[in-house]
C-alpha cells in the first residue's frame, strides 16, 4: 500500500491541527475503476471538532471513508459491538449473567442464519438491501480494516481496547449483524432475557423457575420506547419562521457512552447523495440530518413493536400448541456459547409466530399455556435503503413517499421540514398489524385492559383468523400499511417529545388510529406540554426574547433556555405549603425539617442553568412523585391541564421530605453547575439540563450520588441541530454534546462538551463556502486497490 502526503488547509494551531499533523500520510487513492471488483477512494476533510466531510465517487468509496474516519475516532466502540453481535461477550469480558444472556440471544440468530436470510432476495431496497447500500457496508468494513491495519492493535491510542485480542478486522456480515441488533432494540432485543429464560414446565406441570428482568421491564413500560432513549423535535413551517422557510430542531436523547453514541459526519457523492448530520457509531449512513432542501429527525415512538400470542398447548405435550384445532410442534434448537466457566447451552423454542417468551408472573409457560411473540422488525432489512432515500428527498412529499414505500423506521417517528416551508410529522414506523377489528375479535377478555392501557396486544394464538394478516398498501405482510398510520403536514409547525402522535399540533389533532400505535385524548407529559408552549410563545413573541417567530438563533435559545415547566406551575404553591408546614415525615418514617428546602426553592430561578441554585431540590421532589395535581386533565385544554398542585395531598410533602433525604450531604442551595458534571479525564465539565419529571425540555439523565450530586450523565441531549433551509442553502447551528470521540487521548474527546456546557455551537457547513470558511480544515485522502 503506497502512501501520499495529505493537503492541509487553513490554520492548524488548535488541537485539531495538531492531530491532523499525524495524518500527513495515508493510503493512496485507488486508480482502479469503481465497482465491486475495483478499488476504494475517498476524500476526508476534517472540519472543526474533528467532524469529517467525506466525498467519494461511489458508495463503496463513501463507505470506505466513513469506516476509516469512524475507526480513527471510535474503533473501540465498533470493535466491542462486533464482539457482542458475534456472541463472544462471555469469553471476552467475563461470564456474567448479562453477557451469557447476550451471547445466547445472538448465537441463536447466528445459528438461524438471520442475516443471511435478510440479505437474500431481489436487491430492490424493499425485499433485500440494494446494491448501493451493500457497497456502502462493504466499503465501511474495508475502511475500518485499513485504519486498523495501518495503525496496528498495539498502537491504538484508546486504552479501552489498545492491544486487546478482541480488536480484529471486521466483515460485512459483522456489520449486518450489528444492524439487525439495532432493528430489534425495542422488540426481540428488549425481550432477550425472556427468550433465553423460556423453558418448558416440569413433568409435574409446574413452571420452571425463570428470571427475566429486562423482559419484565419492557412489559411494565407504559409505552413502546426502548429504555434509556427519547427525543424532542420541532419541524417549523413558513408560517412560524422569520425567513418564511422550513426549519428543524433535532434533539435526540441517547446514551452518552457505549455503542449508541451519535457520530457527526457529512457524506457526498457528487450528483447522487449529499447529506450532513449524524448517525449512531458503526452505522454507515446519516440517520438524522439534512440535504440542501429537506431536514429530518427522529423521536422514539410510543407504538408497540411486538405482539403476544397466547398458545393453547396440546394435552400432555407442552412443546406443541393447538392451531385451528390441530397440534403444531414447536421448533427446538439448542444453542451453545463459550464462557470462562465452560460451554453453556440453552434450548430455544420457536413457533410459526416467533420465539416463546417467558415473563415471570405475567407470561408464564405452564402445562396448558405459553406465549410467543411476533416481531416484524426481526425481518426489517429495509432501513439503510430507507435512510438513503430520505437523504435524496427533495421535498417533504418525496420523503413521505420514501416512508410509504419502504416502511423501514424500526421504532421512531419522523419529523421533517423542507425549503418550501412545509412541516411533516409521521409515525411511519414498523408496527404490527393489530387493527381495531382484530383487537376486538382476538384479544381474550383478561388481556383487554392491558391493551387499552398500554397498547400491548395479546392475541389468541389458537386461531388462524387471529394472525396479523396483510394490509394491501403495506411494504411487507404483518405490519400496518401507510393508510393506517398517523401523518400530518402543515405550514406552521409539528412537534414530538415522545408522547403519542395525538398532539403533534393541537390545532389538528390526530385521532382514530389503532391503540397499538399510541394513546389519544390522554394527559401529555410536562416535557411535551412545554415543547408546545415554547413554540406557541415564540410565534406570539411572548417568551421574553426579541421579536416574534423563529430564527435558528432564537430556536437555539429556546431549546437551551432550560425552563423547568413543573416549577413554573407549582413552585410557589409548594413553597407556601412547605413554609407553613416545615416538619414532615419521609416515606420511611424519618422526620425531616424542610426549612432549608423551602428557602432553596424560594430562591430558585425556575431554570436548570449552570447558575441555577436549588433546582436539584425540585428535580428530586418531582422524581419522588411530588407532581400531584388537584385539577383534572381536560382533553379540550391538553397543553395547559392539569396545572394546580394538590396541596391537600399528604404525598406532596412526603415527596419533598424524600427529596431532602435523597440529597443527603448535597447543599440544597448549590449551583447546578457545581454538582451536575461530566468527567473528561481529570476535568469535570458542568452540564445544564435535567430530568423530564420536572418538566424540563433539555433532558439530562444521571444518577444521584448522596453527598456529591450528579457526577456522570447517563443519557439525554446528545446531537443537537437547528437548521434552516434558506434560499442560499442550509444554515444554522449544531453540537454533539459528548464530543466526537470516546477516546480520552483524542483531541475531540471533550471539545464539543465544553462548548455545549456554555450553550455554544458549531455551525452548519453544507455549502462549499461554509466549509472553506472553517479555519481548522484538514484534508487527506484514503483508499486502496482491491485484489
From TrEMBL:
Keywords: Hydrolase, Signal, Zymogen. Residues 1-32 form the signal peptide. Gene3D superfamilies: 1.10.1400.10, 2.30.120.10, Glutamine Phosphoribosylpyrophosphate, subunit 1, domain 1 (3.60.20.10), Penicillin Amidohydrolase, domain 1 (1.10.439.10). It comes from the Bacteria. InterPro entries: Ntn_hydrolases_N, Penicillin_amidase_A-knob, Penicillin_amidase_dom1, Penicillin_amidase_N_B-knob, S45. GO terms for biological process: antibiotic biosynthetic process. One of its GO terms (molecular function) is hydrolase activity, acting on carbon-nitrogen (but not peptide) bonds, in linear amides. Belongs to the peptidase S45 family. This is Acyl-homoserine-lactone acylase.
